């Protein structure tokens, strides 16, 4: 018996071929899946997203195939993720800011034409009253017209078939017609029927007692104009506003998305009904973020100093209790405070009324609403500042306080001459980060006040307690027009402000950019 053994070199060669096959097979499968996704997006007319995935796919193939780019394959997933989830949404948002993209201008020009051309109307001049008979073979419709009567073959209602011919007839089907209450029960099935006459006209259910002819509402001409077949009015495409308009300027919806340049950005500074609320909200946003940082730092620093006091016993218990607001989810605390500040039944107003005879309007008075927001946000943010200060206070030499005590300095003097100068520099980047976070503190506003009370005279939904981020959200999703273009322009401005803060943070952290 002869046994054949493979040499080590042959075994290594076979393993190498297996690895190469798996590598190229996996790459080919992923490439096919990516190309299928790109073609599907292109078929759905999502050209921007199709181009995005085409660029990513081409970049991935170049990185993972080329030997010159071998080192980049390890960082490519992170770069691709940043491109998809950070850079692309940012560029897309900036691009939307230069368009009239809104609830009334969502579609492309071709899709608007398709939508309008698909509309129909029922002719009042071609209308038939009807009677419905139930026979052994099915339901029979007898249409009573002005010039001639029509009758349908037996129909099985509720089936997938919906088109049936109707022929002239002067004889009623046998039996009694169904009563109106029986027709009401069959209305859903009757509404799906399309009855076709000998001359090709379609009849559909117009009411419980009649069928009427269906006509296309609009006719498209070679010059892209549309004529309303019902009224005879002609509409012209206005590519500056993105609507079809008639000679009097009346528009029909939906509209299409067009490039309007800097109009959204200029509207923020030129339209008084937008500029006034925007500036008011912008100032409040800066004030809110700055005041939150100051109040949380002050309270956190005071509590951290008290917990460092040697004469206090049970520090562990106090430390645990003071950190609890940081451990409870913020949305729970916000909703609890919303109940406590309730103007009619909240415990805070009950106490104030019992002690001082006052019942503040926390949610309807702008100044009180803003004060309430600062109180709640200070409660939510002080544990973070307290933890930071506790760690930094541990690093301050005790000798400095002993020498200060020998010179007769008190706690206030030590705070401003020793503690603050030594901790403010390492705290500065964290304070800037806290400022940037509160600049976009959407959850607090959305859950506590919803932006209310509203600013009088604003043409967009704007409230005195709105931050820029919640103001943008309301413009994009709560306004009756849902002006995504204007919201994108404001979001771009927010990005520039937060980006500037990030650069300052990096500079203060001595990071080279």
UniProtKB/TrEMBL annotation:
The alphabetized UniProt keywords are: Cell inner membrane, Cell membrane, Membrane, Sugar transport, Transmembrane, Transmembrane helix, Transport
Per the record, its GO cellular-component terms are: maltose transport complex
Which organism is this protein's natural source? Answer: Marinobacter nauticus (Marinobacter hydrocarbonoclasticus)
Q: Which PANTHER family match?
A: MALTOSE/MALTODEXTRIN TRANSPORT SYSTEM PERMEASE PROTEIN MALF (PTHR47314), MALTOSE_MALTODEXTRIN TRANSPORT SYSTEM PERMEASE PROTEIN MALF (PTHR47314:SF1)
Quaternary organization: The complex is composed of two ATP-binding proteins (MalK), two transmembrane proteins (MalG and MalF) and a solute-binding protein (MalE).
The name under which this protein is listed is Maltose/maltodextrin transport system permease protein
Report the function annotation for this chain: Part of the ABC transporter complex MalEFGK involved in maltose/maltodextrin import. Probably responsible for the translocation of the substrate across the membrane.
The UniProt entry lists membrane topology as: Multi-pass membrane protein
Q: Which GO terms describe its biological process?
A: maltodextrin transmembrane transport
What family is this protein classified in? Belongs to the binding-protein-dependent transport system permease family. MalFG subfamily.
Superkingdom of the source? Bacteria
Query: Domain ABC transmembrane type-1 spans what residues?
Result: 282-505
